[in-house]
User: Fold these one by one.
Assistant:
Number 1:
Amino acid sequence: QLQASGGGLVQAGGSLRLSCAASGRTVSSYGMGWFRQAPGKQRELVAAISSGGYTDYADSVKGRFTMSRDNAKDTVYLQMNRLKPDDTAVYFCVARRVGSVIYNYWGQGTLVTVSS
């Protein structure tokens, strides 16, 4: 089970940190990621971290978002800085088995709203 938290309302230019706690799962054994879904837009994978710790980001968030992992807590984080109104979306924590490219495990979403 993936439990995401940390969403909320923030002004443009502000910061938020999302957390995703994995129960029954060792995050270091999975590829983890954050998708977002905004109204009228395609779902977008904004950040990912491999089991080996390699991170990758969508161009739209590169340089502003940082994904990290705390293996001891089986938790992943998404630090979001310099937020823009276009970052407004429901953010989902996801996981995939090593060797798979499909994120089969999804948590409930957490809403991030960035006001201008």
Number 2:
Amino acid sequence: QVQLVESGGGSVQAGGSLRLSCAASGRTFSSDTMGWFRQAPGKEREFVASIRWSGGGEYYADSVKGRFTISSDNALNTVYLQMNSLKPEDTAVYYCAKRAWGGQYDYWGQGTQVTVSS
């Protein structure tokens, strides 16, 4: 079993920054991929970014490229999402998730709210 706990959400003005954290406990492997997703009210959940636990292999949605940075700290079993130049359209509940190599995202956190005001 794996537990994922997000933190770091909050309310900021447009142009501001936030850093989200996702602490993992349980069975994780260096070959796992950690992802951040978000869901805005009335919209489907969408992919934001992903990274391998071992580091590297970062992928970003076009909408956040150049503004968001995903990173991992294996020693702390934590994945981060640094969000800069935030826009009102970034407002959503942000979730972290884990998938094994070659598998689907099968573990999800409870989500953390990010609200960006104009």
